[in-house]
Amino acid sequence: MSDFVNDFWNLYVIVIVLASILACAVLLIVQGKATFTPGKTMGHVWDETLEEYNNPMPKWWSWMFVITVVFALVYLALYPGLGNFKGMLGWTSVGQHKVEVDTMDAKVKPLYDKYMAMDLKAVSADKTAMEMGKRLYLTYCMQCHGADARGAKGFPNLTDADWQWGGQPEQIVETITGGRMGVMPPHAQLGGETIKDLANYVRSLSGLPNDSVRATKGQAAFTEAGCIGCHGADGTGMQALGAPNLTDKVWLYGSSEAVITETITNGRQNKMPAWKDFLGEAKVRLLSAYVLSLGAK
């Protein structure tokens, strides 16, 4: 795929680069033919003592500029630099990166193979494996879940015992490998009053202060609106669907009546990206073991 939206920019870059090099070459030629009078001043004086003389540039300095021009032309013939021209060597930064990654992967493959053959719980108890897993976590996961893995609004805490999609080893591997898409559909059609009733009922499930009259109405609405289809009749949720437990003290977006009302009204959509293609199976396994160890504390 071209880096330019049309061929004009390709030609523009080529012309600008070559014109700049040509201008440097012309300047060198012109200066080489200039006439100098050693010992004669140009009439420019600074601080009454510093004068400008009409002396030629030192030869070694002139040759440095010539070498620079020649080097630029050779470089542009061998490597990318002239628009879409890929260079005679066909070098790319992407290809160079792949070579370096493959070289490093070959060096660490025996170590990864060792952990691939181990039970995930055993890997999570291995000190060296956890040091590697922590580095992977700090590189790829802390941006969302935090350096301490305690998460933030919309991003789960990985250090507690609450697992929206399941905390068993194979479930953690599945989550990191393929990612997750959590969707809470909007229910604005229920109306403001019913939604407030539902919000109070949901707060009552986890022992939070609530309007008991509204909570009683909300309990009926919880069934009638179909909330039990995902969260269960008792509100404890369903890990297979990623539907959170509403009876504990864990809240991904907040537990205030206003936030819960917002969630029911507008819904929520939260995506955990898949890492299999980017990290590979071996790194995903180490990362999964590290996350498993966090929840075991």
What does this structure look like?
The chain is mainly alpha-helical and 297 residues long. It is built from 13 helices and 4 strands. It has a two-stranded antiparallel ribbon with strand order 1-2. Strands 3-4 form a two-stranded antiparallel sheet. 19% of the residues are buried. The mean pLDDT is 92.
Quickly list its features.
two-stranded antiparallel sheet, Cytochrome Bc1 Complex, Chain D, domain 2, two-stranded antiparallel ribbon, mainly alpha, 7% strand, elongated, 3 domains, 297 residues
Would you kindly provide a brief summary of this structure?
The chain has 297 residues and is mainly α. The chain has helices at residues 7-33, 59-78, 93-116, 120-124, 127-140, 142-145, 169-178, 192-205, 212-224, 228-231, 257-266, 276-279, 281-295; strands spanning 41-46, 50-53, 180-184, 268-272. The strands form two sheets. A two-stranded antiparallel sheet has the order 1-2. A two-stranded antiparallel ribbon has the order 3-4.
